Amino acid sequence: MTAVANPTKEDLLKGVDDAISVIKERASWSAENRRLHEDTIAALQDAGVFRMRVPAQYGGLETDAKTMVEVADRLAQADGSTAWLVACSWIATWGLGLFPDHIQDEVFSDPDSQVCTTIGPGSAVATPADGGVVVNGSWPCISGAHHSTYQQIAAIYMNPDGEPYPVMGPVRIDDLEITDDWDTLGFRSTGSVGTSAKDLFVPKDRLMPAPAVVSGQSASERNADTEMYRAPFIAMGSAATVGCATGMAKAVRDIFMERLPGRAVTYTEYGKQAEAPVTHLRVAEAMLKIDEAEFHARRLAETVDDKAASGEEWSMVERARCRADEGAAVRLCIEAAEIFAAASGGSSAYKRVPIQQIVTDLKTFSLHAMMGPDVNAEIYGRVLCGLEPNTYFI
Q1: Coil/strand/helix, residue 276
Q2: Is-same-fold flag (115-208; 230-384)?
Q3: How many Å apart are CA 357 and CA 341, to the nearest integer?
Q4: pLDDT in tens, 76-129
Q5: Domain residue ranges of the chain, discontinuous segments joined by +
Q6: Which homologous superfamily is 115-208 in?
Q7: How many Å apart are CA 304 and CA 66, to the nearest integer?
Q8: pTM higher than 0.70, yes or no?
């Protein structure tokens, strides 16, 4: 398959649909080997998904937030791990668009090259050196490191003139050591391994203060007025990832509904599960939760897109609500998936029925610090009550 040079949204979605057959065919290998199969990566590249949040001057598509939600949702219906890796690449490439243009020229020389990222410093420390810093330390859970050319690292800069502060910058993945420690029950295929740096020199012009990156402050002249960059990092990242949750919930829904006609309610006189009132109540409740989750996903994306189009300044309430919308969507998707799983009977425990695995993937997704429903709701509530958000990740 050959990638379309400048695909429309319809071309992009068709490419995603074409890639789904490969994703499903390679899903077992990917889970067993704890990383996406190269055929899956190639199909995603052909679809153009890795270019969705790359600046246009480098062959990127600069797709809007609504398209990100739709693509992540479709991919997650096929495989949550694949959707997560793609969403992480969007966050990484978008973030690099905030860096000086000459850094982007290097990183985006191949618009299909993948970038992995972390926004937390892990154990990494950046010590001042002539012309830059020397980085030592490690980062856990770097999704997509196996397939990436660059990693956006973070580290605590040991500022000789004041308090230490976090910095971020891209380095070649070949300059890092990969620790193959991703052995989990959920999201096995994401390849979220650990990486580490030992006496790695990073030039000063490749670094930006992490709070500046997270707040969307750009050091790029070319992207300064680009619509895609009129959003805070966290709001954009929330829009990039929320479709993973809705897609996985729909996958559980679809498997349940496919199995429903041939199932009875064991140890009752209901020969058809579809005729039992308890089934009606469960299905209705789960479906409504997915609908509610989609409302939050849609509002999140619309907020990002509308603010980007208008160029208006973001209020703290809007920033906090984006995190809250993702948290609410994740909570509702887990609740919906668990209802369908509970109604699926003992036969769903077998590996041949992927319901339990998808629920586990969804719960693993929710463990990420940016997805937690309670923390995100607390931040939103603090801001609504007139307090500071107690984090710069907003």
Answers
A1: coil
A2: no
A3: 10
A4: 999 999 999 999 999 999 999 999 999 999 999 887 778 999 988 989 999 999
A5: 9-107, 115-208, 230-384
A6: Butyryl-CoA Dehydrogenase, subunit A, domain 2 (2.40.110.10)
A7: 9
A8: yes
CATH 1.20.1270.220, applies to 230-384: no
- Report the interhelical angle of 9-25 vs 65-78 (nearest 10°): 20
pLDDT over 90 percentage in the chain: 87
- Averaged confidence pLDDT in the chain: 94
Torsion, Cα of 308, 312, 316, 322 (10° steps)? -20
The interaxial angle of helices 80-96 and 38-47, nearest 10 deg, is: 60
Structure tokens at 277: 């009132």
How confident is residue 216, by pLDDT bands cut at 50, 70 and 90? confident
9-107: CATH topology is Butyryl-Coa Dehydrogenase, subunit A; domain 1 (1.10.540)
269-324 pLDDT, tens digit per residue, is 999 999 999 999 999 999 999 999 999 999 999 999 999 999 999 999 999 999 99
What are the φ/ψ torsions at residue 186 (nearest 5 degrees)? -115, 155
CA distance 302 to 330: 18
Tell me the two tokens of residue 378.
Answer: 């607390």
Reported as a pLDDT band with limits 50, 70 and 90, residue 1 is very low
Q: How many residues does the chain have?
A: 394
Residue range 343-355: average pLDDT? 92
Neighbours of 110 (CB within 10 A): 12
In sequence order, which residues have a C-beta less than 8 Å from that of residue 316 and are 6 or more positions away? 383, 389, 394
